[in-house]
Write a structure and sequence with these properties.
The complex is a heterodimer.
Chain A lengths: L12 E12 L5 H16 L8 E5 L6 H4 L1 H9 L5 E5 L5 H14 L5 E8 L17 H9 L3 H16 L3 H15 L13 H6 L2 E3 L2 E2 L8 E10 H6 L6 E7 L30 H13 L8 E3 L5 H10 L8 H6 L16 H5 L3 H17 L12 E8 L3 E8 L1
Parallel strand pairs in A: 2-3, 2-4, 9-10
Antiparallel strand pairs in A: 1-7, 1-8, 4-7, 5-6, 8-11, 10-11
Helix pairs in contact in A: 1-3, 4-14, 7-11
Chain B lengths: L3 E4 L5 E2 L6 E7 L5 E2 L17 E5 L3 E9 L20 E7 L4 E7 L13 E11 L3 E10 L5
Parallel strand pairs in B: 1-10, 8-10
Antiparallel strand pairs in B: 2-3, 3-4, 3-5, 6-7, 6-9, 7-8, 9-10
Classes of the chains: A alpha/beta, B mainly beta.
């Protein structure tokens, strides 16, 4: 098992509190969104900020210098109280890295209770690399040499699914229809209007075959969690808390044969036979192995729907269905609220837009609320096990399994 | 004054006409091929690391997938904001002998409507953009059925 980075199951940590600042385009500092989310999570946990022994911030790179040192920035805004501090960055997977850092501190005895915060104030339009000439940076090069934006990669994946699996643009649109209906039920979502298939089809093509309403926007938002050891949770009176049972933060294995953001080419499989499963599938498998459960035991999933077509890809990568069967799963309503395995009942990125360092934390907030039965109109009846899955630029795997 | 022709990235491609090739490197120990080129150390974790030798990649491949860019990409992609935006196609091409997929822009004039997954394409020299002193060169993919 050493090659997988561990020897199986780890101990659990308790989620004592979850909080968010609504997603939108508010035009304010990421610090404000993050501290609002942090205060909400602390209130939810029934703890004061001065009870917190460690704070972990997920960094934003577009917030200027304080964004790179988010942990201390949030700690200062909440009022310096001397807590241990960590700041992490792993692109879209930053939130999972922050959760995993907090978990590792708790399980190693470095901290009893940890506040995890991520927040972003997103720029308008396409994400782009920060300025300057950096010909040694693959992210800079793909823009300089190819003009390859993130939606261009989403378009490549979508077209590939159409050619290999027979997915159609109408299938992709149905993902948006499903997620927008769910986002309409979520007070933290940015887009709360139901979207029809006709509206998707009438929106402008951004990167063939994907249209504007197939692609997630970029948003402002903040999310926070209070995590604690099981012993601390019991002392605090949380008798049956939501528990994080697994956090997967795996990297790809050579050769990585799926073209991945921001690369211009895949690894070569000429000399080494690639693994049977793709990188994304390995992210989920590592989480399942650590949790000691399989996809058939899931009550629901939150996946990173950067595009409608990518949500379908996740169904297969999570093992919710066989390869090529995702569109069928969607059409049969299996992944809708009330289906066997609802996906993105939060409304997903389709309803939130991406606030990079907050997004993976927001996914765990949704797991927490669903598992507690606190999700209001979008509640999944009897939710017991949830997975959140995600992938950060450059090869950052990210998945969290929570149970109750 | 004649403008100089400068590759947008040094060492990634070379040659003219039918001799134009993408340039990768190959590990002398495990034969793994790298594009963009690795010049410091082989990235195969099972390889002790051999010499990395420059190797031209196959001229032909098959389309793995394709898309286009209907909106003007942001900097550092260089465009003339005075001119209306003309979308171009992006093609991901699978090279059979190297067993890797390489992205590139399609030759001007080829749109997504001209492309299908699995179609054969070839590598040709292209121009990314021009300024007063320099013609910045790049690589393009062209369907083999097209002769323009």
């Amino acid at each position: 098992m050493a090659a997988d980075g561990g020897d199986g199951m780890t101990e659990e940590v308790a989620v004592l509190g979850a909080g968010m600042h609504p997603w939108g385009k508010w035009g304010r500092s990421f610090v404000e969104y993050g501290t609002a989310a942090a205060r909400a999570a602390l209130a939810d946990a029934g703890l004061g900020w001065r009870d917190i022994g460690s704070i972990v911030g997920a960094d934003t790179v577009r917030g200027g210098y304080p964004g790179y040192v988010a942990g201390a920035t949030f700690a200062k805004a909440l009022g310096w109280q001397g807590a241990r501090v960590t700041s992490v960055y792993a692109a879209c997977a930053s939130g999972a890295q922050a959760v995993n850092t907090a978990r590792a501190q708790i399980l190693s005895g470095l901290a009893d209770v940890v506040l995890v915060v991520g927040a972003d104030a997103a720029p308008k339009g396409f994400f782009r690399p920060v300025g300057g000439d950096r010909p040694d940076d693959p992210d800079w090069l793909r823009f300089r040499v190819l003009g390859a934006t993130n939606p261009a990669y989403f378009g490549l994946y979508a077209r590939r699914r159409m050619a290999v699996h027979g997915d159609t643009p109408e299938d992709f649109a149905q993902v948006k229809v499903k997620n927008s209906a769910l986002g309409a039920l979520n007070p933290y979502a940015r887009y709360r209007k139901q979207v029809t298939a006709e509206e998707v089809a009438a929106s402008a093509v951004v990167a063939d075959p994907l249209r504007l309403l197939d692609i997630c926007a970029t948003s402002d938002g903040g999310a926070a969690l209070v995590l604690a050891g099981m012993e601390f949770a019991r002392r605090h009176g949380a008798r049956d808390p939501v528990r994080i049972r697994a956090v997967s933060t795996v990297t790809p294995r050579y050769p990585n044969t799926v073209l991945d953001l921001p690369d211009m080419a895949t690894d070569s499989a000429a000399a080494v036979q690639p693994a049977a499963e793709t990188f994304r599938a390995s992210i989920a498998r590592a989480a399942y192995e650590e949790a000691g459960i399989g996809p058939e035991e899931l009550s629901f999933a939150e996946v990173y729907d950067l595009s409608t077509a990518l949500e379908l890809q996740w169904y297969e990568d999570l093992g919710l269905c066989g390869e090529g069967e995702a569109a069928k799963l969607l059409r049969e309503g299996v992944t809708a609220l009330g289906g066997r395995i609802p996906v993105n009942v939060s409304g997903g990125l389709a309803s939130f837009g991406e606030a990079v360092p907050a997004q993976a934390i927001a996914q765990v907030c949704e797991l927490t609320w669903q598992l507690r039965g606190d999700a209001g109109d979008r509640q999944i009846a009897g939710a017991r096990v949830g997975i959140a899955a995600n992938q950060g630029l450059f090869g950052h795997g990210s998945a969290v399994i929570a149970v109750r | 004054m004649p403008r100089t022709r400068t590759p947008v990235v040094a060492g990634w491609f070379a040659g003219d006409g039918d001799d134009f090739r993408l340039l990768g490197t190959r590990c002398s120990s495990c034969t793994s091929v790298f594009f963009p080129r690795e010049d410091s150390h082989c990235r195969n974790p099972g390889c002790p690391g051999g010499d990395l030798e420059e190797v031209p990649l196959s001229r032909h491949g098959r389309i793995w997938s394709y898309t286009d860019s209907r909106y003007r990409p942001p900097s550092p992609y260089v465009t003339d904001p005075e001119l209306p935006w003309e979308p171009y196609a992006l093609i991901a091409v699978e090279l059979e002998s190297e067993r890797l997929v390489v992205l590139g822009q399609a030759v001007p004039g080829v749109t997504v409507a001209d492309l299908t997954v699995g179609m054969e394409v070839e590598i040709v020299p292209g121009v990314l953009h021009e300024d007063t002193e320099t013609v910045w060169t790049t690589w393009n993919w062209r369907p083999t059925g097209v002769t323009a």
